[in-house]
Specification:
The structure is a homodimer. By secondary structure, chain A is an alpha/beta fold. Chain A is 41% helix and 19% strand. Chain A starts with a strand and ends in a 7-residue tail after the last helix. At the A-B interface, strand 9 and helix 8 of A face strand 9 and helix 8 of B.
């Protein structure tokens, strides 16, 4: 399952094939369990082999506990998803943050590159890093926070409290804020992009500034990790023709290698597919701890 | 062996213990072979099991060929180190860039953290990344170029041709350039740091600016990779008491986690020790290609 800020997707998957699926507004654990029951029934399964959960981070990788993710509704923020689902469905439950999980989806079912960076470009900006076919988790599983790399130390305030994070410069919420300042009225990132596509020079300028920040991030990620590919997902990929050339134009002079940008072929299912393969890519230590959080009977 | 811009170190190592060692100015392949012969004789070995070579990059990881590294003297730049040593000494020879090799040294014999970033802070700035106990090589082995992350797109010109790279802002050569502009006379990075230690306000300001760039890099590396530790090597670690607090002060507001900086306990031997363990950490594909570059008789 993929627990997003507004919607949750649940599916029964067998070797990457979706047998049954449901999607509903993210509210509380109750809806999750109902959704799981429904897809199990539809798939004709008594019980899942394992449940993989992608959730808006941060997630404590040892317990699978959500650490009060700001982007989830209050009813979900402190929910003991792993413990509860494991007790109810009697199978191991693995939980990880959604951007890393999306990278796993891309690794298993998308471009299948061995060295790539996955970037969710949406209201916020998240990321997952794969090096040599392995997920980069970080010391406690918090790696991949591409959106919170500080690109301009004196830049605009980010939701995380810092200044000049990539997310504040190029994320949807940051862009909407910049647009309000520029146009003197509330305007969403989507509306701004549409205006830019129609050739509005002020909108184009704001979009270009966002693409410059994203380009700088892409370039420095290339120098650090030498990925063969950058894979993008999230709402902004709907305006790829407008954005990709501008990101590349900004990034090229800042990196010494060839940059390849692509959109995930998996669309909104990337996180769901990744969640289904999480058992395979979670580090063995965390996997054992998460699966062992409830001693299942028998 | 560790082929540096000015000196080359050669040693006979057995399980991380140095049996014999030599150090001489980097010139050409001739001196390398003589040095190897000497340490072999002193160690009482007929032939090494394997030779690991750390060299100023870039290195073609499939062939182990040096790709004209700008920091090596002309006689070494295009030398076929791998092929020549393999033919002469009849054992597999593995070649990799010196910053990555230093990270391997640190992983095997230093702090032994499983998730860390190694940073060589010297005339130039290099890096090696270890995630989950594994070296991050990148698609073709060029990852870890921390010095060439662009921190300030309109900053000073870097030796690589780009502007505002970390190396141009905080490396010894960049710092010397900035000092010449400020003081109106040639002054080395070492002299500048000594002046700063004595409390010269202009020197302190230049050092602070360099530390700010390093701090910004450290912070964004933390957000990306969540290392448990940043390990520093190179000449600047000789002034650690001056630099470390300033780097931390700059980094802390830009990262959301706790940052630990340390100096490698291995000193100038970190690359040499890493080279001796390169066979273990080179990706199997490249290792096989490099070891297979000359069919050794028998």
């Amino acid at each position: 399952m993929d627990i997003g800020g507004t919607r949750t997707r649940v599916a029964a998957l067998e070797q990457g094939q979706i047998k049954a699926r449901r999607s509903f507004p993210t509210q509380s654990l109750v809806e999750l369990k109902v959704g799981l029951d429904q897809v199990l029934q539809e798939a004709g399964w008594a019980k899942p082999q394992a449940i993989g959960v992608a959730a808006a981070g941060p997630v404590d990788m040892r317990s699978g506990q959500l650490l009060n993710p700001p982007n989830l509704p209050p009813g979900m923020r402190t929910a003991s998803v792993g413990t509860e689902l494991q007790a109810t469905f009697g199978c191991p439950v693995y939980v990880a943050n959604d951007a890393t999980t999306a990278a796993i989806g891309e690794l298993e079912y998308g471009h299948k590159a061995q060295d790539f960076v996955y970037i969710t470009w949406s209201t916020g900006i998240g990321g997952g890093i794969v090096c040599g076919g392995r997920v980069v988790w970080g010391a406690t599983g918090q790696a991949g926070e591409i959106g919170h790399m500080v690109i301009r130390p004196r830049g605009p305030r980010c939701g995380c409290g810092k200044r000049g994070c990539l997310e504040a410069l190029a994320g949807g919420a940051g862009l909407a804020k910049a647009a309000r300042r520029r146009f003197g009225q509330a305007i969403s990132a989507r509306e701004l992009v549409t205006l830019a596509q129609k050739g509005n020079p002020q909108a184009l300028e704001l979009v270009k500034t966002a693409c410059q920040a994203m380009g700088q991030a892409v370039a420095l990620l290339w120098e650090l990790l030498e990925p063969e590919l950058f894979v993008f997902g999230g709402g902004f990929t709907g305006s790829w023709d407008l954005l990709a050339p501008r990101v590349l134009e900004a990034a090229r002079p800042l990196a010494r290698g060839s940059l390849r940008l692509a959109v995930t072929p998996l669309g909104d299912d990337v996180g769901l597919l990744g969640a289904s393969a999480l058992w395979k890519h979670i580090s063995p230590d965390w996997g054992a701890l998460q699966a062992g959080r409830v001693r299942t009977p028998g």
